[in-house]
Amino acid sequence: MDKYNFKGIEQKWQKEWEKARVFETSDKNDKPKYYDLVMYPYPSGAIHMGHVRNYAIGDVIARYKRMKGFNVLQPIGWDAFGLPAENAAIERKTHPADWTDKCVERMTSQIKSLGISYDWSREVNTSHEDYYKWTQWMFLLMLNRGLAYRKKGVVNWCPKCKTVLANEQVEQGLCWRCDSQVDEKELEQWYFKITEYADRLLEAIDTLKGWPENVKTMQRNWIGKSHGTNITFKIEKSDKELRIFTTRPDTLFGVTYMVLAPENPLVKELTTKAQEKEINKFIEKAKHETEHDREIKLNKEGSFTGAYAINPANNEKIPIWIADYVLMEYGTGAVMAVPAHDQRDFEFAKANGLPIKVVIQDAKTQSPKDSKIMKEAFVGEGIMTNSGKFGGMNSNEAIKAITDWLIEKKVGSRETQYKLRDWLISRQRYWGAPIPIIYCEKCGAVPVPEKDLPVKLPKDVKFTGKGDSPLASSNSFIKAKCPKCGKEGRRETDTMDTFNCSSWYFFRYTDPKNSKEPFDKNKAKNWMPVDQYIGGVEHAILHLLYSRFYTKVLKDAGYSPADEPFTNLLTQGMVIKDGAKMSKSKGNVVDPDDIIKKFGADTARLFILFASPPERELEWSDKGVEGCYRFLNRVWRLVTEKSQTTNNKLQTNSKSQSTVKQITHKTIKAVTEDIERFSFNTAIAKLMEMTNKLYELREGNDLQFAICHLLLMLSPFAPHLAEELWHELGNKSFIMNEKWPSYDPKLLKEDEITVVVQVNGKVRDTLKFPTDSREEVIKEKAMLSEKVQNFVKDKKIIKTIYVPKKIVNIVVK
Ligand code: ANZ
Ligand code: ZN
Questions:
Q1: pLDDT of amino acid 611
Q2: What is the pLDDT of residue 698?
Q3: Residue 94: C-alpha distances to residues 83, 85, 645 (Å)
Q4: So what's the pLDDT on residue 461?
């Protein structure tokens, strides 16, 4: 027999599978459905090992579930809009569409060379008109449901390139292209009201039993619901008021200063003449920092406005500052600062010489006592002090009591705050779905009627990287008649954030060719929700949250049967090499093409699944790859050299309980259980073990039986090799259409030993133990046996003798 010619085998079966269209999924049959989905790729140019890992995991699940009798949908497509294509267009003077198509072509052939069982007939490409028409339709749906609106928003603006920048294009406050200081600029932009769904998005997290805890925590924190109190402070010598949001009203008597966000409109009104210069200087500086910079800044900088507020609890006069650690976008854009009990306030007070006043003490130690020697804020619960009539009360109770008191005095109210903001969906870019709106002088912002969708991207566009949205440079695009009154209007030149494309693509897969609707409700009902979603943890927040939001809106509109899109989520770990994430800049990238060329797709898949459990990091190892390659060669030789007959012996006719049969049944049990819990590495280890044992044992008929089962179990991991050998054994059907093997529990028994328990040499009991039980355990259980106890109870135990796996003899006097 020839040696293992992976190249020929892999190409041959990929062709055969395609010809027989075995991976194409029918919408309905009598099998239960299973929707297995990997996060669709961005067509960046070539696939990397992270993709291979993602797809290998998805494919094991798909192939396994098919064999378990499910009607499996495993689609693939392209998240094809986005910035890199536009940048490539600027750099290489091509059109983003041409560049994207090239990338898609190359990556398609790479993915196909891996032999992943995708239903390519359902391929979607979000940059194609037949797709983005429906992304625009989603915009109209949001608009119709009162979930889309326009308001002024702040964007990053590079004064030199004269363009808006995405957050990712601002590196430490500088434009990524020309290194100029980035400014903030106000533009009219479109928003989706995701905040209207904040509570539903939050509450439903508890129902996501199949999601990793860390992802759920990140989503909860992102939504960031907190219960607190709004408190109104009067301002000295002014009829203005200052409202703040706090989660700690119990600290009200400890407020020693107030802080406004630099952008808070009150700043202008409150700042005294004497302080104006200082304040303006500070504001100018803060403008150049992103929210993130501001949040992580350790050195708390601020500036005094010259104005004072009055604490409604004790009428104390407190200075009002501005500082960059207070965000305009949260609460009221103002805080009451309690340096003794809030660490940020503590640091700020220390840095700026502001007083610190203790109002809560630890019940046991009565500390902190002296604010002067405090090293950090005391943030825990405790006993109230220096707090008027609330002194002596537990601080947790004081939260409620002080709030009630403030409400009574009409200077406070209970309040719930969310960190979640509405979703800004406008992008001043070309390579996205144009927002389907026409502005008319008379009628305002008028939606493009559904029958006129898609609003197509024009071709006559220059990609210079300068100026406003590239769409604004296309006259043919801008000019449009108002759908309402017919007068000349102007098209919206912004496109939709590409996260919109990926928020509903899993619906489109259920009905990818539909030209009348985004998808047919019944088809969605047939397939949704996705049973298993697999992707990188970097999407833990935005993509998954937006997809959940879209699904809820589609549910409310009667389109989605499901309230949540993804029942189970697996977040795969990163692929690293020499301790660092594979990346071009580190020069530690292993190209999947090279591995496939040298060892074949089956080895690549096997190694990736064997090297580490899916959620963990995977350290690349050339030795590990070679090991997997050797294993597949071993399987090859085992089957081609040692199988004496060429008829399929799935059902052995020998009634004997041969070792080979026992090994087979044991392995079936173990591998099945491992795959069910996605422990692919241990499943593969067991297949390796089985192969080794079969090498040593050569028992006629049963060997044939064992080999067939080995191939069935290997087929989700190394499908080409398994298919080839399966046919080599005389089978005519595709291996993926076979049933997943089941095991006979009766044949697992070799795992048990029977131990006879004697007392002074007389048999008193027999006990069963797992084969690998330790001596102490066996002795202890023997002693505890009721039958044995009858003979040893009142006696003195001299010694206990153990004959391994056979006898325990207890000697008594
Ligand atoms: C006084 C206080 C005393 C606070 C104390 C905390 C501890 P979460 O839980 O995240 O909602 N805060 C309110 N608005 C803010 C803004 N726009 N920018 C920055 N910080 C802001 O946090 C609520 C707390 O964050 C509020 O409670 C407020 O500080 C601060 F011992 O008020 B606290
Ligand atoms: Zn009009």
A1: 96
A2: 67
A3: 14, 9, 60
A4: 86
Mean pLDDT of 764-773: 84
Give 451 Cα–ligand 2 centroid separation in angstroms. 18
For the Cβ of 246 lying below 6 angstroms from any atom of ligand 1, the answer is yes
pLDDT beyond 50 at 724: yes
Average pLDDT over residues 330-339: 96
pLDDT mean over 10-26? 96
Residues with CB in 5 Å of ion ligand 2: 440, 442-443, 482, 484-485
Question: What digits encode the pLDDT tens for the residues 438-465?
Answer: 999 999 999 999 999 999 999 888 887 7
Q: Is pLDDT above 60 for 652?
A: no
What pLDDT is stored for residue 650 in this prediction? 52
Q: Minimal CA–CA distance to 34: which of 76, 62, 14, 1?
A: 62
User: Residue 784 above 70 pLDDT?
Assistant: yes
pLDDT at 548: 98
Q: In 353-482, which ranges are continuous DSSP H helix?
A: 395-408, 475-478
Nearest-CA residue for atom 27 of ligand 1? 246
pLDDT(646) > 50 = no
pTM, to two decimals: 0.86
Q: Which atom of ligand 1 is nearest to the CA of 417?
A: 11
Ligand nearest to the CA of 382: 1
- How many angstroms is it from 247 CA to the middle of ligand 1? 6
The finding on whether 417 has its CB within 6 A of some atom of ligand 1 is yes
Of 476, 514, 420, residue with least CA distance to 205? 420
What would you report as the CA-atom Rg of the chain, rounded to the nearest whole angstrom?
A: 34
Instruction: State the CB neighbour count (10 A cutoff) for residue 13.
Output: 20
Neighbours of 724 (CB within 10 A): 25
Burial of 380: CB neighbours in 10 Å, binned 0-12, 13-18, 19+? exposed
Residue-wise pLDDT tens digits, 167-210: 767 777 888 778 888 888 888 999 999 999 999 999 999 999 99
- In angstroms, the CA 97 to CA 103 distance is 10
Considering every ligand atom, which ligand is closest to the CA of 331? Answer: 1
CB 354 within 8 A of CB 258: no
pLDDT at residue number 297 = 59
What is the whole-number distance in angstroms between the Cα of residue 142 and the centre of ligand 2?
Answer: 21
Identify whether the C-beta of residue 127 lies closer than 8 Å to the C-beta of residue 80. yes
Q: Is the pLDDT of residue 756 over 80?
A: yes
Q: Which helix (H) or strand (E) holds 633?
A: helix 622-642
Nearest CA to ligand 1 atom 26: 246
* pLDDT band (50, 70, 90) for residue 122: very high
First to last CA, the chain: 69
344 lines ligand 1 (CB under 6 A): no
Identify which of 202, 250, 257, 330 to mutate to test ligand 1's pocket (most ligand atoms within 8 A of the CB).
330
DSSP string, 656-717: S--HHHHHHHHHHHHHHHHHHTT-HHHHHHHHHHHHHHHHH---HHHHHHHHHHHHHHHTTT
The answer for residues whose C-beta is within 8 angstroms of residue 673's C-beta and 6 or more apart is none
Q: Is the pLDDT of residue 653 over 80?
A: no
Nearest to 402 by CA among 286, 549, 231, 516: 231
Question: Does ligand 1 lie within 6 Å of residue 65's CB atom?
Answer: no
Q: What is each CA distance from 35 to 131, 527, 565, in whole angstroms?
A: 21, 6, 11
- Average model confidence (pLDDT) across the chain: 92
Ligand 1 center from residue 658 Cα (angstroms) = 71
Paired tokens of 595 = 């591995």
User: Quick one: which ligand is closest to 300's CA?
Assistant: 1
Residue 330 CA, closest ligand 1 atom number: 17
Element housing 546 (H / E)? helix 542-556
Q: Which residues contact 805 (CB under 8 A, 6 or more apart)?
A: 753, 755, 771
- Which amino acid residue places its CA nearest to atom 7 of ligand 1? 342
Nearest CA to ligand 1 atom 18: 326
Which ligand sits closest to the CA of 486? 2
